[in-house]
Specification:
The complex is a heterodimer of chains A (about 900) and B (about 120).
Chain A: H1 2-23, H2 25-31, H3 34-50, H4 54-57, E1 68-71, E2 76-80, E3 84-88, E4 114-117, H5 118-150, E5 152-153, H6 157-170, E6 177-181, E7 188-190, E8 196-200, H7 206-221, H8 224-237, H9 242-263, H10 269-288, H11 296-299, H12 301-313, H13 322-338, E9 339-342, E10 348-349, H14 352-363, H15 385-391, E11 399-407, E12 410-417, E13 425-431, E14 434-439, H16 441-456, E15 466-482, E16 485-498, E17 510-513, E18 516-519, E19 524-530, E20 536-543, H17 553-562, H18 579-587, H19 596-607, E21 616-622, E22 628-638, E23 641-654, E24 657-670, E25 697-698, H20 701-712, H21 721-727, H22 744-747, E26 753-754, H23 758-768, E27 776-780, H24 781-790, H25 798-808, E28 813-814, E29 819-823, E30 834-839, E31 845-856, E32 862-877, E33 881-889
Parallel strand pairs in A: 1-9, 6-8
Antiparallel strand pairs in A: 2-3, 2-4, 5-6, 7-8, 10-11, 11-12, 12-13, 13-14, 15-16, 16-18, 16-19, 17-18, 19-20, 21-22, 22-23, 23-24, 25-30, 26-27, 27-29, 28-29, 30-31, 31-32, 32-33
Helix pairs in contact in A: 1-3, 1-9, 1-13, 3-8, 3-9, 3-13, 5-8, 6-7, 7-9, 7-10, 8-9, 9-12, 10-12
Chain B: H1 7-19, H2 25-32, H3 40-53, E1 56-61, E2 64-69, H4 73-80, H5 84-90, E3 97-99, H6 108-121
The chains are: A alpha+beta (about 900), B alpha+beta (about 120).
Amino acid sequence: MELLLNTVKWGLVTGAAALLLTVIKPLLDKRYSPRWRYGVWLVMALLLLLAPIQPLLLPRQEVIEPPVQIRVPRLELAVSREEGVSLQRPTEDNTAARTGVRPVQDADAPASRRTFDMNRVLPAMWVLGAAAFALYHLLGTWTFQHRMLRWSRPPDEDTVQLYASVQRDMGLKRTPCLRVSKWAASPMLTGLVRPRLVVPDQDYSQQELGFILRHELTHYRRHDLWYKLAVLAANAVHWFNPLVYLMAREAAKDMELTCDAAVVAGADALARRAYSETLLAAVHRQKGLGRSALSTHFYGGAEVMKERFRNILGSQGRKWGLAALVLTLLLTVATACAVGLSQPSGPKELTKEELEAWQEKINAPDQRGQYLRRMYTDRTYLPPQELIESLESSEQIHATVLSGTQNGDTVTLELEGSFSSGLSRGTLTLADGEPVSFTNPLYTAVEEMAWNTIIASTTAGQGVEIAERCITSLYCAESLQLEDTFWYVWEVYDWFKPADMSQITLAGGMEEQNGWISNSYYAPVLIISEDGSGNMSLEEVSAAWQLENGFTWEDYVYCHTILGMDMGAVLNGWPEINMEFIQSQLDGHQAGFNDWQDVARSYLSQLGAEPTEELTIVRSAKTEGQDYDESLVVRTACGEYAARILMTHIVYPVGDQTVSFWQVNSVWWDPEVPDFTPAEEPVDIPEKEEPPSGESEELSADALAAIADYFNTGNTGGQDSYARARNGLLRFPYESFDGIRHYLEILFYDAGETVTDEEELAALEERMGTPIETDCFRLTRKFIREFLSWEFVEEVSDDALRTMLEEHLSLPNLEEYEAFYLIHGDTMMTSYQFDRGIREADGTIKVYYTTDLWVWEESGEMNILWDQPMCAAMQLVGQDTWGMISNTIAE
Amino acid sequence: MMKRLGDAELEIMLAVWGAGGPVQSGYIHQQLRGSRDWALPAVITAMNRLVEKGFLSCEKRGRSNWYRAEVTEGAYKAAEGRGLIDRLYGSSFTGMVASLYDGRAIGQEDLTELREYLDKLEGK
């Protein structure tokens, strides 16, 4: 393009000079002969020819800026079906680097738009035009010559003789081959390499022929064909410039004029007249040939001839005009040098030194983070200064400058580093040295989504009016790829300025800075997907507190955003995590929870569902740093209900041990949550009724079984200490509450919690004075008091209780733990079966059964009476609790 | 449509036209001797081809063949000038030729004008 601009410049200047010369020709002709112009045209043609490569020939011009500068804008030709053809400035290059993902496409760009850079198109057109011009003339000349010659024959003897004499006369050593052609309309000299002088097949007189030959040989002697070649070449290079065509025509005219002058140089008036007549006669002859006589006046053919006549016959003694020639040429060259035709330079790559300088500048410790602190698409996205200042951290962010370009005042740098947004690549744009943008396509897309999201949320709750809002930072908490889609989880730190600060009372999790408030607990989290073509869409707006549920973002995106499952919280699943469960895990009792299939099936069965399909894993993901180390999404079906189960493998530290087990977090039913048969109804305890008529009533088998359950529950391996203690209520005889005082150890024999605390055990051993070899169970005072006061019908006073504990409970106890201890390795748990029972008129229940009975003797010893028939009397206390009245040997 | 003559064929035709009447092959052979070194049989072959093309007709007189032009020089010349390339380049292309004058540009009226002008200049 520079070449073309240079060419155009020289073409215009030289063309203008040519035009000027042509215009003032009448004036000049009075004083100067055409010879000097003949020289000027040649030099101009050479200037024009060399115009494209002029900078190489005049290197000094690069240092000095031409005083007159004409700026040519860079343009693009845009062609599109919708918009048609338009000429416009080129759109800016998007040189932003990536975070390793494909760029965001502009969905609005018309698909059928094509742009052509004029800086490429125009030079190409120029070269093509020049080539076409040259080709046209080459072909034309060759065809013309060929035609001319094939219709020609050698001249006759007389002509040959005349030719030879003219040659001698002119002192020429060699001459072109002479031919007589029927095709020629006029005598001519043709052919650069093998010149031929062609004369039409006419009857010329000797005199006429003599002049003709002389004229053409003068052309030959002056190498006019080379002159013509120079002018033609210049015209080819400047084919688009009409002024150069003008110059070429003037040059051709002056060539003939000077040729005429050379032919008649030194000749007398008579000879000159004869020559003129020859010319006119030649024209006449051409008419006779009926050649293509196009309209005349337009081409001024007659005018030219008149000028030639004037020139031949006109006054001699005009000056040669060397000074004029030199002056004209100097003026032309000077003007061309004084004018500069240039384009604003496009973007240029920065050198290594410049990049290093920038790297130093943006990483300087004292620049207060103005370059890299946060990313932003443009300055309107930056939070207000008072917030920036109060949130400033001293943490230094370091970046490496990978590459950079400069376009006028704008510098664009590609940076790499660990930035606050969580991204590692960014483009920093500076205008006049000031940063105006630091972003990359992913960040820009997210920034816009984040703004739209926070603007969409109306008030800050409770009708608090918001005066202003801003986003202080965006952070990419997670990025993952699932099949062909990329997913991003972005935390949005947004702040708002309330219209009236006095209305606000800050709740927990809220922060206030300089009149701005942020609610980081409810801060939005954007979950964004990006498809294969780079189209991004906001899939879900979650919140920061979601993380408190214990799941990773990855699991959240998959299960909640994509599958739409309600996930619950990690430690809040099934089975329920409580001290009993943890304890049993530590004991190793519940090994069945280590296989996910077992856990899933148990879960379903306790719901009342039976899987009718294999349980298959849909997705499994391992993780670290959470309360779980693996999550599963399992698929199955129960009849016509499809289920998707979310499970996690919990790893839970207890002291210096760790328990791990599978837990079901949520189930997603399709098409809807099924209605399973409800779990077994609670124990059907007959209600306390008004005795119908004072009669006693036999109890049904169901009622008896229900009552038996009450005492037997603890026997089924349940963890409830109460249940186990209830089992002990029937191991010994008593007629009232007071009667149990000898039997407290037997009553509580299987109750209590296992003691695991090392310190406690040590203290106990010390207290006992002996090492403890078997299991040790703890009964808290509280537990004993509660049990004793609830399980008996009699009202028990505090004193009585105290007496019971202090005087009759002879178990080792530790005051600091407020507990009693049982040390044994076996169990007394029994399964009771009641044979019959009656309900008395006053509502008292009596049940009859057989069991082995502990009996206290007066001597203080305990005996067992085997298979004793017993009667236990109780009353319903509350809805499903029995209060014991007595347990006696039946008659 | 008239066929186009090759360079050699044109030379033969020019010689025939130049003769002004029927010619024998030997005559043509002699005419061509300066520019082309053809043996007589070659000339006869070429002339027979021209007969086929319709440019010549052949008449047997006694023992020799006499050839006569069937197409006039003017007609052929005009026809040759009507081709596209010829119209573009052929007649008066002045690109790389130095002619006595610009052959295209002068018409009938101008001639009279020029005559008068020259007379004036010559002081007549």
